[in-house]
Specification:
By secondary structure, the chain is α/β, with parallel strands linked by helices. It is built from 14 helices and 15 strands. It is about 30% helix and about 20% strand. The strands form 4 sheets. A 6-stranded parallel sheet has the order 7-1-8-9-12-15, with helices on both faces. It has a 4-stranded mixed sheet with strand order 11-10-13-14. A hairpin with a 4-residue loop joins strand 10 and strand 11. Helix 2 packs parallel to helix 9 and helix 8 packs across helix 9.
Length: about 400
Amino acid sequence: MGIAQIGRIILLSLLAAIIVFVIIEAKPSKATKGSPVILVPGDGGNQLWATLNKSSTVHYLCTKKSDLYNLWLNLEELFPYLIECFVDNIIMQYDNKTRTIHDAPGVNVYLKDFGNTSTVEWLDPSQVTLAKYFVGLVNALVKVGYERGVSVRGAPFDFRRAPHDDGGWGVALKHLIEDTYKINGNRKVVLISHSLGGPFTLYFLNKMTPDWKNKFLESFVPIAAPFAGATKITRMFSSGDNFDEYVINAITVRPAQRTYPSSAFLLPSSKYWDDDEVLMYTQKFNYTVNDYKKFFMDLGCPSCWDLRVDTKDLIHDLIAPGLPVYGIHGRDVDTEEQYTFDASHKFPDAQPVIKFGQGDGTVNMRSLKSYLKWRKEQKAPVTEYEIPGGEHLAILQNTTLHQYIIHNILKL
């Protein structure tokens, strides 16, 4: 399983309803030459740990009770049969009366070392090569004088959730930014996000006052950000996504994938896909961005529509953050654009025929570029840096990316 495949596993791996944010206290040290950095990961971009106290399990191989253990990334749990245990532990439950989301009964998932970089550098604490995440960038920053946990820090979050119901992450991020500013000699912080971390960070920034942002923040660097959603989310909802791994049954993982508010949040935006542009052809109906309700009802998933109603307007207008923005993304990687279900690929349980287009392998190009509208909406600069062949996840290990951030953004 390669890095790209791990990237596709991302949409499965999510956090929990009960999150304990403990900011790792750091003592002031000699200031780095560049601005301090906080890293905001994307889908599956940080470790998560869990305890179990379940009354039953879906398989005899599954564990009912457990002390704190590594839930994500744990490659062993992605093998046949064991993946059923993983799905049962990571699935969420939606209460349509309170419009709130919860962990599965008997499961509590926790974040570790909020504010440190350990859980965003490696997805698996064993640090196997396939589990690399922000480690390449952090290593590059350390080489030019940055210090882990002091001038480069991490802000993992519950990325099953959508940003309006983040389990306390926004409050924790605000405190982390202020603390990082203080321990680095009152120097403004650069926020560097990846993937879903971009929309989450934008939502956060839109909630902060201009005075607060001007005092504590230097710039915002969204990498591979799906600000306008991604087409592949529609396929995940319809047929499940096995991440191109033949040992994983897409139907097995689909029930969990349909419970994540962040997935509904990332459906293609009606501002960037035309009303008559078909996302998914089927034998009975052709679905566009205006047909999500019918789409979910046809799937027999009314709670999916509830999740979409709750999340569709959170950043729909893409309000400018009011900070310098240095967007970075890949291009020239085949990216899912449109789907066809026919007699040989029956909707919704079969995998469809896929038409590919321009993007980074996960996010469509129009979504990657959607933030460029801010050039006309704020005085602070908004730039774009494209990396040909920069795949959505692999781009994080790209030395061109590292050098661009160090030299062009941090000015080192």
